[in-house]
Amino acid sequence: MDKQIKEIKNIKCDVKNCVYHTGDSKCMAGNIQIGSQNACSCAETVCATFELNSDAKKY
Length: 59
What we know:
Blueprint: E1 34-35, E2 46-47
Antiparallel strand pairs: 1-2
């Protein structure tokens, strides 16, 4: 995982196939961006920082 910058404190991430996921529910992106601008519910939000880890197991 060469994209690791530093852990984002107090952020829990369960997206195991992201390049920034540590395997223990931590995010190492350094910072994150959440979208969409017009979200009206939790289901309409996404982590725009997500990048697929092609080495991750398929879940």
